[in-house]
Request: fold
Amino acid sequence: MDKSAMDRTQDAVVTSGHCTCGAIRYAFTGKPHWVMHCHCASCRRAVGSAVATYVGVKADRFRYTAGTPKAYPSSPGVLRHFCGDCGTPIAYTGDRWPTEVHLYHGTLDDPAAWPPTGHAHIVEQVDWFEVHDDLPRYEALAGKGVAPLYNGPRKGSR
Ligand SMILES: [Zn+2]
Ligand SMILES: [Zn+2]
Reply:
């Protein structure tokens, strides 16, 4: 298969998701740009749980297929999008990532799709919460040329 044919195959993959009540539905095509857990306090509060897991997709491959979420600025230049009917957090967008939409993994129709590849803002991780994978842990955000602090769970947690 030549490269363009492979690209077409990947582009044909459609991933969909929805909020708890179903008023908001979305879909994106192709592979996500990245998939990460975020342990920062702002994300924790936004999802009401110990960690927020994101699927980062290119905005031009993403669309809402039902409803329009509400949004509020959780920090300057940042919008948290949620269902105005049931309150489910749907997505995060920020001026820093103008071409991306960061979807909350828990809203995917298939939770087995697109497993995470790393942990961000690990220094804010709550003491009693650990994930026993071998993925890289980043002090803040992952990115080109950013080395993880370590891989796998904190020492002494297993
Ligand atoms: Zn809803
Ligand atoms: Zn965060």
Observations:
- The chain has two helices and twelve strands.
- The longest helix spans residues 3-12.
